[in-house]
Amino acid sequence: MTSDFETQLRAVSLRVTKPRLAVLTALHDHPHVDTDTVIALVRADHPTVSHQAVYDVLRALTDAGLVRRIQPAGATARYETRVRDNHHHVVCRFCGAIADVDCAVGRAPCLTASDDHGFVIDEAEVVFWGTCPDCVTTSSANAEGSR
Ligand SMILES: [Zn+2]
Ligand SMILES: [Zn+2]
Ligand SMILES: [Zn+2]
Fold first, then answer.
1. What is the mean predicted confidence (pLDDT) over 50-62?
2. In angstroms, what is the span from residue 118 Cα to ligand 1's centroid?
3. pTM score, two decimals?
4. Cα dihedral sign for 58, 62, 63, 64?
């Protein structure tokens, strides 16, 4: 996997560095985590990598298109390495868990605006909101317990 990331970094003319490989590896293993979690994951393996270095790497990788930044309304920004496939996300209202949802159409934009106001539309941002299986189980368990 590491050599894959090296190839990806070189493809976008970014130098291969330990912090960049560490961030890509952390996001590959733990998709949809926020900045603090990325910092914790990276520093668990590489204690010498600073918080600021992780911030800088996340920005550079996002700008280069190797990392996708998603920010569901009211949530902190999350990052993932699954880019360029226009997939969507389902977000749990209770715990913030996020899962990937493949695009039914597969190409952006996957929705056609009823009125495009003359704009050339290239993307429709779709976020599915709901309750994740864990939270469904917890809330029904609580409901039974209170009866
Ligand atoms: Zn949940
Ligand atoms: Zn995703
Ligand atoms: Zn779609």
1. 97
2. 39
3. 0.85
4. positive
- Which ligand has its closest atom nearest to the C-alpha of 97? 1
Q: Which ligand is located closest to the Cα atom of residue 32? A: 2
pLDDT digits (tens, 9 = 90+) for 7-22: 999 999 999 999 999 9
Report the separation in Å between the CA atom of 66 and the middle of ligand 1, taken as the mean of its atom positions.
Answer: 28
**pLDDT tens track for 81-117:** 999 888 999 999 999 999 999 987 767 788 888 999 9
What span, in angstroms and rounded, lies between the C-alpha atoms of 33 and 76?
9
Ligand 1 centre distance from Cα of residue 127 (Å): 15
Cα of 14 vs centre of ligand 3, distance in Å, is 30
Helices and strands (DSSP H and E) totals, the chain: 5, 6
